[in-house]
Specification:
Helices cover 74% and strands 1% of the residues. It has 412 residues and is mainly alpha-helical. It has 2 domains: 1-221, MFS general substrate transporter like domains (Growth Hormone, Chain: A, Up-down Bundle), CATH 1.20.1250; 225-412, MFS general substrate transporter like domains (Growth Hormone, Chain: A). It has a two-stranded antiparallel sheet with strand order 1-2. Strand 1 and strand 2 (9-10) form a beta hairpin. The two termini are 16 Å apart.
Amino acid sequence: MTVGEDGRAVASAGGGLRGPRPGVPRGPLRGTVLLAAGVVLAALNLRAAVTSVSSVLGDVRDGLGMSPAGISLLTAAPTLCFAVAGTAAPWLARRVGLARALGTALAVLAAGLLLRPFDGPGVMIGGTFVACAGIAVANVLVPVVVKESFPLRIGLMTGIYTAALQGSGAVGSAFTPLLEGPVGGWRGALAVWSAAAVVALLVWAVGARHGATPERSQPRRASFGPLLRSPVAWALTGFMGLQSFAAYVVMGWLPQVYLGAGLDKSTAGLMLSVATLIPVPLSIVIPPVAARARSQSGWIAALTVVSMAGVVGLALAPAAAPWLWAVLLGMGMTVFSLALTVISLRAADRETAAGLSAMAQCFGYLIASVGPMVFGLLHEATGAWTASLFVLLGALAVQLVAGVLAGRPRTV
């Protein structure tokens, strides 16, 4: 989805956001400091919901008596929701306006986070799906707000947004195990994160105010059709999907790999925090530099190889240098920001960028949803993490090829 010059949101096939309905606020949200704070607080909630569970996954499994299939489904829930529920964002924004749509997403996220720990496996999985549905809608809408409301500071706001998004993963994984003692166990520690979503919702409700409606022509609707025949579009989709495959395996299972190697629970959660915190400064520095180059293939290849080195270390000697493996994995996860950058660079115009972004998200997250589930089921079948890690290594090898193809200087 993208925003046209007239400030009205436009989306690709599947959502068809061609302009708000009559009676819905049409002007762009005013780019105030308070709105910027709302954007940052919203972004800070978009990964903590995932990493907070992964850092206490063993306690959740034991406390609820969840089966291996149930645990694998729980870790796959985010990417499944991102592939499906995100398609509702254009429709929702058209129906109620951008401000209310994002507010609704934050409210749904808060409700899912609050409810999921307080019953059996079905409620845990269902609540996670509800929370991740809110995240999926926010994933689509927050970048639109950045582009629409801060047109003179897109680079700065995008960097801050991406850093907050990735930093939230580190916060969730680091603090959830520490909260178990003060709040009486893993249930309370997970429920605490709903408060962060409520704070974001309150700030957003105050800061999100529509401005006047610009009187300009409406841009045409983007379409999937030509993209489905484009090798460049499929290379980008594969790259987006495979880097998400790797990222959500790391966010979902890294603490369990370290626990299996003999690390204690707090240290294992800290390793995930390191892996998810490393991309924060790198995501601000690397994309602008890479974007100025004619090709981004070299950057993508280098970061992917760094990830592969971290996975090999985890597979062969996880306890020998846990900090090093976490740092290498974190450096490699910076390719997420490059994936977003390359989508914009490969698109010939804003309508193509909208369709390309939607295609990469829809099909890419379907690819990614396989990762956490297969990773967990392989561990259950073999009793060790080695086979799972080598599957991840194979996915990174394919990511290397797709990323190099996506990074070449061609346009769709």
